[in-house]
Specification:
The chain is mainly beta. 6% of the residues lie in helices and 43% in strands. It contains 2 helices and 26 strands. It has helices at residues 2-18, 135-141; strands spanning 31-37, 44-48, 53-57, 62-66, 71-76, 81-88, 93-100, 105-111, 121-122, 129-133, 165-174, 185-192, 203-209, 219-220, 236-241, 246-255, 260-266, 278-282, 288-291, 300-303, 311-313, 318-320, 329-333, 336-347, 350-362, 370-372. A hairpin with a 4-residue loop joins strand 4 and strand 5 (71-76). The protein is globular, with a radius of gyration of 21 Å. The two termini are 40 Å apart. The relative contact order is 0.14.
Length: 375
Amino acid sequence: MKAIVRVLSVLLSAVLVTGSAKPAVEDFPATVNGGAWPAGHVQGIAVDAANEVVYYSFTTMLVKTDLEGTVLGTVTGFTGHLGDLDFNEKDGRVYGSLEYKEAESFYIAIFDVDRITGMDMDAETDGIVTAVHLDEVVQDFTADMDGDGVFDGTIADTPDHRYGSSGIDGVTFGPAFGWKNGKQLLTVAYGIYSNTERTDNDHQVLLQYDVTRWRKYEQPLTQEAPHTSGPATPDGKYFVRTGNTTYGVQNLDYDAFTHTWLLGVYKGVKPQFPNYSLFAIDGSSRPVRGAIEGQPAYEEGLLLPLLEQGLHHEPTGIRGWNFTADVGLESLGNGYFYIATQGRAVEDGVTRQTAVLDLFRWTGAPSSPFELVAR
């Protein structure tokens, strides 16, 4: 009995030292209101569950709130496209995709979120944002695929852009593909142009990076003179066949509870594919080297399998769901997720973009992979 009392005393002391026990995500609010903002629509979210803080990307600004929807700060001044976000539990920072297509520059923006303490803090001058350049993305985006010596630019109706790349969007932290545990890597998903005239754009492309080696690359954000400090190559490059989508993986999320990678997309339009809006990668299956179908010349790569759940399209073998999770998808643990819905509100004659988060529980059912948590 005395031994049990000593153990309980130690556990209680640990809770007192850390301030509080880790919050139970099952008890998180069923709805969180992200406010209304004079910016682009919500692109992605990140949740620091331990501190009960939410981060929203509204295309040209970052918003920080608590779980009650109280605004804790904002970062403004982005002239590029701020996309999906994720929170890195290892260093306590938020990572997000950041595109400057016209400048042919693609970055991961890294936010020192403890510095976000006020409204309209500047992305360049307030010491909050650093950026790491992704050269692999640039090489695929600017690829002259028809060999005419001219890169056709930021358009979809062209044979240029390797794999149909339109840049990057979805980001998340998770283990190396095929592993349930291990070092957390940053996974970055390509945007993919919708183009029904080509066959080499039917895979989603995922890059993995070990960000523990990135401090040497981080530079302050300089939008008028984009820097090129970053890794020359990713630590891994992977392909998953889903059929062509409209702008690729909008939201990417790894769920450690089910060991599943979730891909929220805007539906594709090629009639030979099922054009689901949500796909899942089986996190327990190792990548296999094989042919990347549809390429102009034979090419091999590391292929990832879709999860054997959801709706099944027999002609192609593709699985997925007709469920919208393309502007904010975040795993909270224990099978719970926040999923964002975008909207608009008019205030004083000004149209503002809104985001509302709803709490869902994963089911994987073909009819709907999530069920809404009611309070």
